[in-house]
Amino acid sequence: MSSILVNPSAITALQSLRMTQSALNTTQKEISTGLKISSAADNASTWSIAETMKSDKGVLSTISDSLSGADAILNVAAGAVQSAITVVNSIKDAVTLAQQPGADQAKIATNLAALGEQLKSIVSSATLTNINAVDGSGAGTLSFIASYTDKNGAAASKVDTIDLTTKTLFKTGSTTSILQGAKATGSAALSDLTALTAADLGATVIADTLSNADKAIADLTDYASNIGATQMRVKQQNDFIKTMKDALTNGVSSLVDADMNEASTRLQALQTQQQLGVQSLAIANQNAQMILKLFQ
User: Fold this and answer.
1) Each residue of 126-173: pLDDT tens digit?
2) pLDDT below 50 — which residues of the chain?
3) In a 3-state reduction of DSSP, which class is residue 144?
4) What secondary structure does DSSP assign to 8-69, as a single string?
5) Which helix (H) or strand (E) holds 164?
6) What phi, psi does 155 have (nearest 5°)?
7) Which residue, of 60, 142, 243, 277, has the fewest CB within 10 Å?
8) Does domain 63-257 have CATH number 2.60.120.580?
9) Quick check: pTM over 0.90?
């Protein structure tokens, strides 16, 4: 039945055209944004997962930056300890030389004083981002952020750290630092390697001075080993964090990024369907004109 009030063919063609236009708009949006899911309206569940992953990735980026900073701080501390070992070795050489018959102990004492000042300079300059791991200015432990566990609000999120128990090489007024309170087993008194004088080269104390220097080197070596082990952990953790960050980046991409090859192919097909839909609607609308001809 033909009717001038209702045109079923035109309605069907119009509905098909609307569907094609909607799909075309969606595809054009994917191509322009590069995303198949750009908001919760596109797919609430997938969008929510992707946003959580993006948030975690942001935290991992911060942790990675923190670990890079931690590595730099540890590098400075390790360099300071190594330099201190070198200077204490020079002190040992000078003290040993003072035991030789005819040695000029006054000049040796002057040299020891200069080496002591060098030790102080090494410690005071081993600062990076206001952190000095060798001058006793910290709380005794350096804690570097190493990982983050997202509990999604169901429980407390967790932050783990890599810790270094710091040791004091020199601190003004201290008698317990490695360099100021060096005392080997069996020594009658401790030695302040940053302030040795001719008195420390006397016949009755020079052996203790040398033994105490050996004790300081042993303590410095032990601290250097601890710093090195912490550095290794920091570098390994940073490598792992970067791997995790890359995995999250790929995961988010697989969830929300548009396949541009597919989208471009689909766009061409939809544009063709749109053109055919317009033609189909035009043909359907011609039915009313055909009815008029029956009355001519």
Assistant:
1) 999 999 999 998 778 999 999 888 776 777 778 899 999 999 999 999
2) none
3) strand
4) HHHHHHHHHHHHHHHHHHHHHHHHHHSBS--STTT-HHHHHHHHHHHHHHHHHHHHHHHHHH
5) strand 158-165
6) -155, 175
7) 243
8) no
9) no
